[in-house]
From TrEMBL:
The gene is fbiD. Its EC number is 2.7.7.105. Pathway: Cofactor biosynthesis; coenzyme F420 biosynthesis. Transmembrane segments: none annotated. This is Phosphoenolpyruvate guanylyltransferase. The lineage of its organism: Bacteria, Bacillati, Actinomycetota, Actinomycetes, Micrococcales. Guanylyltransferase that catalyzes the activation of phosphoenolpyruvate (PEP) as enolpyruvoyl-2-diphospho-5'-guanosine, via the condensation of PEP with GTP. It is involved in the biosynthesis of coenzyme F420, a hydride carrier cofactor. SUPFAM superfamilies: Nucleotide-diphospho-sugar transferases. InterPro entries: CofC (IPR002835), Nucleotide-diphossugar_trans (IPR029044).
């Protein structure tokens, strides 16, 4: 544990069937599933290596698929970098898995459910990290946690979305107005507005490792060559 207030990282992970549907023109369902697994393993491995992160939690509607993501026998999980190809996942156990509430779909609902489940740890910070950030590094995570605000938004490459979000965790007995998650279209501005309404300061971080989430062929085209090579090794035939 760190000497500072604890940081709990929450990673939302979808199922292995519906993810990355906007890449369907280039990747078949099996390839998209392998892509989702590889990206999630990379993000979880980065978080596991961050000294500032005390606990990692996955929130999902499909715990069976998350078990596949966390399977220590998986291959092709190393992130982009020199001579880094088929590396076993860095995080193979100890990750808490929280099932999304039944009959209440949606990312914001899932995150609120996860926050309620973990906030008994007391005052600290909650770090939401999307599971599809192929360029994410430990330095990126540290930069978000060091951001000069009660709330820190790591924006996407368009400057409108939110790929990482650090907020006060608080405790289950807090009477203060809780910060509401506002993921969706225009979430950067929505989170800035939510911070102001909650009486919290807000900072925005823009880094290459936090900005590029992989959803579309345009995102794929913007990947550095090394990252594209790594993902082609994992996924198989797909985008050039």
């Amino acid at each position: 544990m760190t000497a500072q207030a604890p940081v709990v990282a929450v990673v939302p992970v979808r199922d292995g069937v519906s993810g990355k549907s906007r890449l369907a023109a280039a990747l078949d369902p099996g390839a998209r599933r392998r892509l989702v697994v590889a990206l999630a393993r990379h993000v979880l491995g980065v978080l596991d290596g961050c000294a500032a992160v005390d606990r990692v939690v996955v929130v999902t509607a499909d715990p069976g698929f998350v078990a596949e993501v966390l399977d220590p026998s998986g291959h092709g999980t190393g992130g982009p970098g020199p001579d880094k190809r088929s590396v076993p996942p860095a995080r193979v156990g100890g990750t808490d898995v929280i099932r999304e509430p039944a009959g209440r779909p949606g990312l914001n609902v899932a995150l609120e459910h996860a926050r309620t489940a973990v906030r008994a740890v007391g005052p600290g910070r909650l770090l939401v990290v999307h599971a599809d950030l192929p360029l994410l590094t430990g330095d990126d995570v540290a930069a978000v946690l060091a951001g000069p605000g009660d709330v820190v938004v790591a924006t996407d490459r368009h400057g409108t979305g939110t790929n990482l979000l650090a907020v006060p965790l608080g405790s289950s007995g807090d009477a203060a107005r809780p910060f509401g998650f506002r993921f969706g279209a225009g979430s950067r501005a929505a989170h800035e507005q939510e911070a102001a309404a909650s009486g919290l300061t807000c900072a925005v971080v823009d880094r290459p490792g936090t900005a590029l989430d992989l959803d579309t062929l345009a995102d794929w085209d913007d990947l550095p060559t090394g990252a594209r090579r790594w993902l082609r090794d994992v996924v198989g035939p797909g985008p050039a």
